[in-house]
Amino acid sequence: MLVGLSTALTAPRRGVGSVSPPPPPPPASFSPDDLFNGGEVGGWFDASDFSTMTVNRDGTGGAPTDTDPVGRLIDQGPNGFNFLGDAGDNTKHPTARTINGRNCILFDGVNDQLNSAATVTNDDMTIIIAATVLVSDNQRDSIFSHTSGGSAAGSYQFEADTAPDFLGELNTSGLPSLPPQPSSISGVFTLQFDSAAQTVSLRDDGTLIETATGYAPGSSSTAPNGTFILGTNRGQARFLEYRMGALIVLGGRMLTSEEITDAETWATARLVT
Amino acid sequence: MANRMNTLVLIVSSANRPLVRQFGGLLGFFPQTYTVGLSSDGSWPPTHWGLNTTASDAFVGLVQGTDYSILPGGVPKAQAQAIRSLLLYGVGTIDDYGSVFFDQVVKSHGLQRAYNPENDI
């Protein structure tokens, strides 16, 4: 549901095929772990490294090789914020793929998904994901969603929407909406929920696309809470086919602009087109 | 060397899903596979259920009835053959793995994906 809160465009719209300047090289010493030194919640994930996941959801089966399923994606941070494949259907587990020599996780767009093993709740939240969308049905199929037990309350999803262009959309319930914006089908997407500014913003490949006002923190009906889900919408019915190279989910504080830049640069290096 | 070099789409009717699920458990599938709802017109509830997976040559052979080497000990070939008769399927290369091939196979059997309106939000 799109609610009628104001939305301000803060950057020119960019069409598919536009060229962004190459990001600066990442600081040699930067690791997403540097972001988790103050008790932040959430975790970070490097899909370019198959040793950071296991074939089975219970942690057995060893690291996958190309074409193996991924049953567990292991948090590389201090919180053990792992993602697990479905407990009842192991054909819903995504697949480890090596594309042109680079590793990623492929969500098949049929029914693959990974769910965070723990819930994550915080009014200040940043999500950074390196993703290449392969096929979208232009409905509600989503790169990720953040749900409360599958209900619409306190949930949102980041959709790949609508033909003919890929458009990033934050489809929300109780949160300010980010209307669809022309965007790339492959890139590093950053969503920031800022309780002090009461805004939700979207960045694509280091460029601020838009900022929506009206984010009301402190309410269980509006703040992001619950299970974090990769590959599908909050109702877990619409699945998106895409490759994921990296993911950071961090709550508890707002990242500095320098941290955002470093983290996006790190994620860009793991993007598999 | 990866051994799951095939894409395998399997479809079963709602009536036969419990039986096929039970047999799948003998081959390492979790107990609640076949979770993609399918019907001829996309309406809910589904008449059929599908799954999409990567598969080894031996597993594809089992589905096609040409290779029973991966059957666990004690599972009679006749039981596998009986289950085979309940399945619709499609086989592709590993590069076919994804929603386009899945939908092609489903369509070839006169079906399409169905969405539960309660979850299609």
The biggest sheet of chain B, with number of strands, parallel, antiparallel or mixed sense and barrel status, is: 5 strands, antiparallel
What is the count of β-strands of chain A? 18
Rg of chain B computed from alpha carbons, rounded to a whole number of angstroms: 14 Å
The end-to-end distance of chain A, rounded to whole angstroms, is 31 Å
Identify low-pLDDT runs of chain B.
none
Helix content of chain A: under 10%
Order of SSEs of chain A, N→C? EEEEEEEEEEEEEEEEEEH
Q: How many H/I helices of chain A?
A: 1
Average of pLDDT of chain A: 82
CA-based shape of chain A: globular
> N-to-C SSE series of chain B?
EHEEHHEHE
Distance between the ends of chain B: 41 Å
Strand content of chain A: 35-45%
Biggest beta sheet attributes of chain A: 9 strands, antiparallel
Oligomer: heterodimer
What is the average per-residue confidence, as pLDDT of chain B, rounded to a whole number?
94
Structural class of chain B: alpha+beta
Alpha-beta content class of chain A: mainly beta
Radius of gyration of chain A: 17 Å
List the total number of helices of chain B.
4
